[in-house]
Amino acid sequence: MRNFLSVADLSPSEITSVIDRAGALKLGAPSDALAGKVGVMIFEKPSLRTKLSFDIGIGRLGGRAIYFSPDETGMDVREPTEDIARVVSRMGDFVVIRTFNHSLIERFSEAASIPVINALTDGEHPCQALADLQTIKEAMGGYTGFKVAYVGDGNNVAASLALAMASVGGSLTIGSPEGYELPEDVLAQARSIGAAHGATIEQVVSPEEAVSGASIVYTDVWASMGQESESSVRKKDFTGYQVNPQLLENADPEVKIMHDLPAHPGEEISVGLLDDSRSIVFDQAENRLHAQMGLMDFLLSDRSDR
Q1: Which among 72, 85, 147, 296 has most CB atoms closer than 10 A?
Q2: Nearest residue to 133 (alpha-carbon basis) of 298, 297, 299, 294
């Protein structure tokens, strides 16, 4: 039984296998990896891409998805998380959880006896990182020989991206205001993984330095779900960190733009860039489906070659 709570739960070679499988599934390769299986989706945060992609992906792989909203489960409110994990394990075949505190999904997985997939916590967004890798591979043909820049908050998306880029030997520079950098333990983990694979993972303050010569520039919202009360302070603190045409002048002339969505045009990204010819944002959104199908095929398939 394998859980996927962090990008680091897969070895670099396994990540490559998942992305390769995702690409094959996107091109129409058949898979009945989830035939007869039920995936239980427990979401404590709103979702469009995550819910849509998992629901459709489970069905395309031959399984059935059952969705529970926050009011229906109430982990640690209606009943203890561990009890929910034990009940779901008795009836479902795997569980997909989207929640706030990363420790909650860790507690759930410790009590569960079926695979647990992290569909987003405040600590990581590993499924997004898989879709990011697939999108980068499609746009660039691989992961090496060019620079990826991430501009903005060193949040869960940035954490998973750093671990993912480290695993595939890529070059990533994160530009964040002071106080909003990637957590030190995550940066150290990414650099440790990357050291064995020729990766370069850097954290800088200057957004211009971050995007200098970059072939891909990635950004995310300044205030994530649960941080709405900090929005006005963050807007001030992130002044100068908007991805806009002026900042992109520092990047490679053929730069590609990424954003995991939802976006706030006029804040972290200027109005119009999501639809710019350089944008691969909606390819990135679509690849949530294919990457997660590749992941579920890998984790849950009975194939002997997985």
Answers
A1: 296
A2: 294
* Average pLDDT rounded to a whole number, residues 167-190: 98
pLDDT tens digits, one per residue of 220-231: 999 876 777 788
Q: Is the full-model pTM beyond 0.90?
A: yes
Q: Are strands 171-175 and 116-118 parallel, antiparallel or unpaired?
A: unpaired
Using CA atoms, how far residue 126 sits from 56, 91, 282, in Å, is 19, 25, 18
Are 14 and 297 spatial neighbours (Cβ–Cβ below 8 Å)?
A: no
In angstroms, the Cα distances linking 176 to 114, 120, 158, 231 are 38, 21, 10, 16
Fold of the 128-285 domain: Rossmann fold (3.40.50)
Give the dihedral sign, CA 139/145/151/156. Answer: positive
pLDDT of residue 199: 98
pLDDT of residue 305: 47
Domain(s) labelled CATH 3.40.50.1370 in the chain stretch across: 7-124+288-300, 128-285
Topology of domain 7-124+288-300, per CATH?
Answer: Rossmann fold (3.40.50)
- Tell me the residue length of the chain: 306
SS3 299: helix
